[in-house]
Design goal:
Layout lengths: L2 E2 L2 H9 L8 E8 L5 H14 L5 E4 L8 E4 L5 H4 E5 L6 H13 L9 E7 L6 E8 L5 H8 L3 E2 L21 H36 L1 H19 L17 E9 H10 L4 H19 L6 E9 L12 E9 L5 H16 L7 H8 L4 H8 L4 E9 L4 E2 L2 E9 L7 E8 L2 E9 L6 H16 L4
Parallel strand pairs: 5-6, 10-12, 12-15
Antiparallel strand pairs: 1-4, 2-7, 2-14, 3-4, 6-7, 8-13, 9-16, 10-11, 13-14, 15-16
Length: 454
């Protein structure tokens, strides 16, 4: 059967009628020298043949069926792989400016949803790769899996596997699309009925034998679903309330051993310290502008990926909750975030993520958009490559990921590489016009945490 978008991906896809809510992800890889670009191109070719969505476009289906992935005859690898030279003086700032412009541009929706630019001309003879992809194509962990098909463990080029055959282009016309949509809807309804048939007798039995327990369990589940979809009518921040189309990208490096040590001293994990550092930076930014701040609304990606899931693909759900950004004690802030994050990871609504997204797809877009634009920040922690790697014979110096703001004032994405936490800052400049002050505040927020590890 035709591959249809998951309900959660269809939700984010539909939200993009508002360009402020685009789900575009950009990654930047810095290399010590120009790699063998022909070799790198061939590896992208292999990936595009092994992962169907890299050669597919998104096609609308008859409502209420979600959009579907469809191979097309006009796929051109050279369209998706470009070459560029960074303007002098060839610093990271020039690369980030190229990435910023790339991140703000929408995809050509008649084509596959990814682009890669090979960049020459960096100072000290370096090079860079700027990758842009839609979040429906892959999540952070899936992106790292894909990257490992590009990277080597030494500068010696490994033998590239023979090219798989090119995927066949779609042959069905309009009627074929309708047939697939009808089959999809029928399968969905059939699955729901079978599920109900399996659960209703058990529910009736439990209602008779343990009525109080059954009602309590149902109420807890309903409350969890409400927390997942509850409306947010205003930002937690009284300062960063505007939303616009322009972005500013920035980076910051944090040593992973020290950040993890700071977390462990407070009974938390690396992710708890990461979120605490971002929250602390936001508090300092508000203080610089003379505005008090308390709790802030965060969207955090929660991975639902299992060992049976293949390479790539989007297997996350976004959970929203509040964090105590106004807490000045970094240890207490980590402890509070640890408790709240643990509660979110154990929400009963998580197994129903796709069902919830399917229901939300029926809600008015203006309503959902207004909810997303009241989230204060997004924080995403992506475990990267733990050892030094090479791309086309060139050593990877650093890697950065810039996740989408999807309506928030800023997205801060942590991507680890060896023993470094690389932070990618994607800032909505309408919400945070004082970028330099914000960057300094983020640095100070993490310095608060690192001081606990000394």
């Amino acid at each position: 059967m035709t591959a249809f978008m998951r309900a959660s991906d269809a939700f984010t896809w539909a939200m993009e009628h508002d360009p402020r809510l685009r789900s575009t992800v950009v990654t930047v890889i810095l290399l010590d020298r120009p790699p063998d670009w022909a070799e790198v191109r061939q590896r992208f070719d292999v990936i595009s043949r092994k992962l169907p969505m890299f050669r597919q476009r998104v096609v609308q289906s008859p409502p209420p069926t979600p959009p579907r992935w469809e191979p097309y005859r006009d796929f051109d690898l050279n369209y998706h792989l470009r070459r560029a030279t960074v303007p002098a003086p060839g610093t990271l700032d020039e690369v980030l400016e190229m990435a910023r412009v790339t991140e703000m541009q929408d995809f050509d929706r008649a084509r596959a949803l990814w682009e890669t630019t090979f960049v020459d001309g960096l100072e000290d003879g370096g090079a860079a790769v700027i990758c842009k992809f839609h979040h429906a194509l892959t999540d952070g962990v899936g992106g790292v899996q894909i990257a490992m098909h590009l990277f080597d463990l030494s500068e010696d080029l490994r033998r590239v596997e023979p090219l798989p055959p090119e995927p066949a282009a779609a042959g069905s016309g309009l009627l074929g699309g309708y047939r697939d949509a009808v089959r999809y809807d029928a399968a969905l309804i059939g699955g729901a009925l079978m599920g109900a048939a399996a659960r209703v007798p058990r529910l009736m039995y439990d209602s008779v034998r343990r009525p109080v327990t059954t009602i309590r369990s149902a109420a807890i589940t309903a409350a969890s679903v409400y927390r997942t979809v509850r409306p947010i009518n205003r930002t937690g921040s009284p300062l960063t309330t505007e939303r616009g189309l322009n972005r500013r990208l920035g980076v910051h490096h944090v040593p992973m051993p020290q950040l993890r040590e700071a977390a462990h001293r407070c009974g938390g994990a690396l992710n708890d310290a990461f979120v605490a550092g971002v929250a602390g930076g936001l508090r300092i930014y508000h203080e610089k502008h003379g505005v008090p701040v308390g709790n802030l609304h965060i969207s955090m990606p929660i991975s639902l990926r299992t060992k049976d899931d293949g390479m790539g693909g989007n297997r996350i759900t976004l959970m929203r909750f509040d964090v105590p950004a106004g807490e000045t004690d970094p240890a207490r802030r980590i402890e509070a975030i640890r408790r709240r994050t643990a509660a979110v990871r154990n929400e009963r609504s998580l197994p129903y993520t796709q069902l919830i997204a399917g229901v939300l797809n029926l809600a008015p877009r203006w309503y959902i958009g207004s909810v997303l634009r009241h989230v204060d920040f997004v924080a995403s922690d992506v475990p990267g490559v733990p050892v030094p790697v090479y791309l086309g014979g060139a050593a990877v110096r650093a890697q950065y990921a810039f996740g989408p703001t999807i309506g928030a004032a800023v997205n801060v994405t942590l991507l680890t590489y060896v023993d470094t936490c690389a932070l990618g800052l994607n800032v909505d400049t309408s919400a945070i016009p004082d970028y330099d002050g914000f960057h300094d505040a983020i640095v100070a927020g993490f310095d608060e945490l690192l001081s606990m590890a000394e």
